[in-house]
Design a protein that fits this description.
about 700 residues, Clc chloride channel, CBS-domain, 28 helices, ion channel, CBS_dom_sf, membrane
Length: about 700
């Protein structure tokens, strides 16, 4: 039943291939190309010909996918390493300034507050001037672009420069901001720019479908080179950016992300930051007995609480933005003073994290990397205290306060960082929210782990062997759960395994991540979908839990029926009524009011620009000058001016032969005298016919009426 068509098609293909092969054999071989003749002269002729053929072979191979992916991974690894080096230098400079002024607390405060404020203000101003599209994460825009929507200026070189420099300054300030989302945008811009460059060697890079596939691979590269996590990067990019993922892109994403992560870690070894290629946050958990089965309820509690916390974070972030927009007075003031809001937010956050002040209760002097290193430590703080046995004694000192215990410090850290991160991510600078949420989740998991270690000092295991509870494992579980709840992804579990270099807690991590996703998806959309709704991007989100009855809603139930439209024969007065009668950004273009055949749409701004062009004084003077110099002897007597489209049938007078020129409206002066008036059977063209504006059909090029 199904084999006949396939067999006939295969036979036809084989016969056709054999015929083409025989035809090629019968065809005489072409002579040596003329451009090679000049290389066949002299003693080194064979070498010259070989070099030219090798050059052509290499140029032809540039179009291969693996070459493009290697270039993409290499460039992104270099960008990631350079940015990390610059960010570490900025943070070290802040510590140096703070430590050098230890004799005066006031000068320390001024240095601690001024430094991040200057960097954030510069980042916001530089981004607004060069490319405002670089503001924010970039993942919501990439989700929209991969759905097929064209967003202008989002994948240009100008946006790339603004994103890289602005993100470096923003992260170098020490604010609770992340770089995972911006790196996805940076990798996508890098892929788009590489496609434009390599299109010089072959036109296949101009193919839109191919570019979309390369953008999907670039999203995986962005996460892979950011965390040195190629597997988690590919899975995260699929979950976040793609609704329907083409399996043929799978190897592209893995290849590019793996190469990028490898080069990124090799550069760290080359710079002597690491002795060998290791995980970014290497953990040393116990492998023989990492956790007891009776600890699984505690891990489940972390997952459920992280689900509620992730939904609350998304809700708080959205409400902050909506509050700023709804307050018209504040909004107008901040629109005039664009740099005031980021400077004010940075001032408040840096003041609260000042180490001699309130920051001493929340480890304010630690950076995000140092915070994660301490939270993933496998020692128990509450049980053993802080002693010289700790490897990171200097860093762990930040969590100890003489007048409070570690539980108070962790609770204050979680509460303060929670609203600080939600507020900081609304600053108009290139920034993400993954790393701040990751750190908050690690702190919450550490709090639960320390509580369990305090309640069960000798562990839960009832056999003769004693295995103490490892709070660092709880921190890993909490980091994966809260970040997965905010982004609505499960791949954060894989990212955590690659970040820590250990897979011993795979079962509790997966349980917590799944439970966190189940709770968060039932309460709020993901952070990226929330930003899409705030920015009103043309993206159709997935329906959440409890909304399945909306699958029965038809398009006709939500469409606006009474809508203004533009026809091909629409006159100037009609077009003005349409523009004044609706505030729609796009106007549908139909053939006529009777047929209502949709031809497309045009933006309102484009219509205004076309009208301004048609009615500009320069256009009038140019047309009048052409009219005076034309072969016509008609005299211009009536000052009234109108637009009309000249067609062969618009006048009873004979028309001269058609000239090959583009279709455009001709500016005419209409004579009021009877001698110059048009015949009774002529069509009265009063107003601009939009056929000339929207449908320049070369097959229907008119002649000018005499």
């Amino acid at each position: 039943m199904y084999g006949r068509y396939t067999q006939d098609l295969g036979t036809f293909a084989k016969d056709e291939a054999a015929r083409l092969r025989l035809q090629e054999e019968d065809t005489p071989r072409p002579r040596r190309p003329s451009e090679l003749l000049e290389y066949t002269q002299g003693r080194c002729a064979p070498c010259r010909v070989c070099a030219l053929q090798c050059q052509r072979f290499l140029i032809s191979k540039v179009g291969e996918d693996w070459v493009f992916l290697i270039l993409l991974g290499l460039v992104m690894a270099l960008v990631s390493w350079a940015m990390d080096f610059a960010i570490a230098t900025c943070l070290q400079a802040q510590k140096w300034m703070y430590g050098g002024l230890d004799t005066n607390v006031l000068l320390q405060y001024m240095a601690w507050v001024t430094y991040p404020t200057v960097l954030i203000t510069f980042s916001a101003g530089f981004t607004q001037i060069l490319a405002p599209q670089a503001v924010g994460s970039g993942i919501p825009e990439m989700k929209t672009i991969l759905r097929g929507v064209v967003l202008k200026e989002y994948l240009t070189l100008k946006t790339f420069v603004a994103k890289v420099i602005g993100l470096t300054c923003a992260l170098g300030s020490g604010m609770p901001l992340g770089k995972e989302g911006p790196f996805v945008h940076i990798a996508s811009m890098c892929a788009a720019l590489l496609s434009r460059f390599l299109s010089l060697f072959g036109g296949f890079y101009e193919n839109e479908a191919r570019n979309i596939e390369m953008l999907a691979a670039a999203c995986a590269v962005g996460v892979g080179c950011c965390f040195a996590a190629p597997i988690g990067g590919v899975l995260f990019s699929i979950e976040v950016t793609s609704t329907f993922f083409a399996v043929r892109n799978y190897w592209r994403g893995f290849f590019a992300a793996t190469f990028s992560a490898f080069i990124f870690r090799v550069l760290a070894v080359w710079n002597k930051d690491e002795e060998t290629i290791t995980a970014l946050f290497k953990t040393r958990f116990r492998l023989d007995f990492p956790f007891d089965l009776q600890e699984l309820p505690a891990f489940a509690v972390i997952g459920i609480a992280s689900g509620f916390g992730g939904a609350l974070f998304v809700y708080l972030n959205r409400k902050i933005v909506q509050f700023m927009r709804r307050q018209k007075t504040i909004n107008r003031f901040l629109m005039k003073k664009r740099l005031l809001f980021p400077a004010l937010v940075t001032l408040i956050i840096s003041t609260l994290t000042f180490p001699p002040g309130f920051g001493q209760f929340m480890a304010g002097q630690l950076t995000q990397k140092d915070t994660l290193v301490t939270l993933f430590d496998n020692q128990t703080w509450a049980k053993q205290g802080f002693s010289d046995e700790f490897e990171y004694l200097g860093i762990l000192e930040a969590w100890r306060h003489p007048r409070s215990n570690v539980f108070v410090t962790l609770v204050v850290f979680i509460l303060m960082k929670f609203w600080m991160s939600a507020l900081a991510t609304t600053i108009p600078v290139p920034c993400g929210a993954f790393m701040p949420v990751f750190v908050i989740g690690a702190a919450f998991g550490r709090l639960v782990g320390e509580s369990m270690a305090a309640w069960f000092p000798d562990g839960i295991h009832t056999d003769s062997n004693t295995y103490r509870i490892v709070p660092g494992g709880y921190a890993v579980v909490g980091a994966a759960a809260l970040s997965g709840a905010v982004t609505h992804t499960v791949s954060t579990a894989v990212i955590v395994f690659e970040l820590t270099g250990q897979i011993s807690h795979i079962l509790p991590v997966m349980i917590a991540v799944i439970l966190a996703n189940a709770v968060a998806q039932s309460l709020q959309p993901s952070l990226y979908d929330s930003i899409i709704r705030i920015k009103k991007l043309p993206y159709l989100p997935e329906l959440g839990w409890g909304h399945h009855e909306k699958y029965n809603v038809r398009v006709e139930d939500i469409m606006v029926r009474d809508i203004r439209y533009v026809t091909l024969n629409c006159k100037y007065r009609d077009l003005q009524q349409v523009l004044h009668g609706t505030k729609m950004k796009n106007l549908p273009l139909v053939e006529s009011a009777e047929s209502m055949i949709l031809l497309g749409s045009i933006e309102r701004a484009q219509v205004g620009a076309l009208l301004s062009n048609q009615l500009s004084p320069q256009r009038r003077l140019l047309t009048l000058r052409q009219k005076v110099l034309s072969e016509d002897g008609h005299r211009l007597s009536d000052p009234s001016i109108r637009f009309q489209i000249s067609t062969e049938t618009s006048s009873g007078t004979p028309a001269r032969p058609a000239l090959r020129k583009p279709l455009k409206p001709a500016l005419k002066r209409v004579s009021s005298s009877p001698a110059d008036s048009p015949p009774a059977g002529a069509t009265d063209h009063t107003g601009i016919a939009l056929k000339s504006l929207f449908c320049a059909n070369p097959a229907a090029e008119p002649t000018e009426v005499r």
